[in-house]
Amino acid sequence: MTTSTSAITPVVATLRAEVAGPVLLPEDPGFATATVGFQTYGPHRPDVAVLATTTADVRAAVRVAADHDLPVAVLNSGHGVPPRYTGGLLVATRDLAGVRVDPGRRVAWIEAGAPWSAVIEAAGAHGLAPLSGSTPHVGAVGYTLGGGLGLLARRFGYAADHVREIELVTADGTTRSVTARTHPDLFWASRGGGGNFGVVTGMEVDLFPVPTLYGGGLFYDAPLVGEALRAWRDWTSAAPEEITTSVALVPFPDVDGVPDPLRGRHVLHVRIAATLDVATGDEVIAPLRAVGPRLLDAVGELPYTDSATICSDPTEPMGYQTTNLFLDGLPDQALSGVLDRVGPGAPSPQVLEIRHLGGALRRPPAEANCVSHRDAEYLLGLTRRTPPDATPEQAAALRAPHAEVRAALRPWSTGASYLNFLDGDGADTERVRSAYTPENYRRLADTKARWDPRNLFRHNRNVPPTAPTSPN
């Protein structure tokens, strides 16, 4: 609900007196840019936006919001967007973008607004790599808070498994150093629980001695898509955990900028990242190459600093809707259900990706966190382009095939979802609940009740606090 002008005026006056960075209202220049990120569908409409330049700015913004009972939202790159909201205070963290690397300890300190590209570059100067994902312009902190399923996931686990310290501004406007020793409940909950417990202004994460990768992509044309998909499925049953792969069904448009071999084709893209040398890697993926000729074969050694080329995700902002589900298997019937609905020749062009899980993802970290569903074999995601100005009816029509795919895969679905890939209208309370085991969700709600009982941080993929128990 939008706060009235008379009520928001004193809030803005206080913020402008206490915050060093810009404080913007909807009518101010720069407000639209500050409140919209990579995802452009379903814009949010906060009452006021604070462009934080220091941790002190964040503390002041949270304290003022709490004093006036305004819900707080946080925005960095805006790739993962919660359900649409109106009103409240937005803290934009893009200007908090510092990165410090300690090569001796193999750690990086990452401020709230830093994208993975900045961390990759800083770590790469020392022959190290972070547990980043496929898209380097994604915010590193938000990605990690939601779990962080990256390029080397089967080798090292979730990014959230390798967080050492979190600097967190809680609902009382206090900055806390959150570790397994100082605040064990917050440390457990924040690593995988998203932004439910405060505004993270920085975190320390592990780095790994991976200066180069064996990686890249294999692209198969439409006539080989089904065979290549089944071959990849069979191959994953014995793949070593040093190799992390996914497959994507991609309908490339016939436009300039798309590589000529792919232009206008609906292809299967096998995405590969491995801590293997070239000879071993070539031997491991030989069954995939044996399927038949590739439109492109771009697999080999590359510096980790070039890891973005493996998936070549879009870099320009766009509107989209997504869904995802964990799977415990992919029999032929399941693959046929996918191909019939979103494969080459299907009536609804979608981008579908299936990630192979297992390996280190199955193993809990030394310091437990709330990341759940570690036993799943695969994670399937669907993305549908959606115009920023689509009406609710238009958006629902574009989203309809998501429900069809989910229904077709129900026999092999675990019923669970992955938090980071829940966007917009697909991030309702029940879908968020499905990202956790029942026990972990109860513990998250209890932690929320201790640290944010009013649910100040609710404009997110929200875990509401446990309701207070009535006295007997």
UniProtKB/TrEMBL annotation:
Keywords: FAD, Flavoprotein, Oxidoreductase. Its cofactor is FAD. Pfam families: BBE, FAD_binding_4. Residues 41-210 form the FAD-binding PCMH-type domain. Signal peptide: none annotated. The keyword Oxidoreductase applies. Belongs to the oxygen-dependent FAD-linked oxidoreductase family. This is FAD/FMN-containing dehydrogenase.
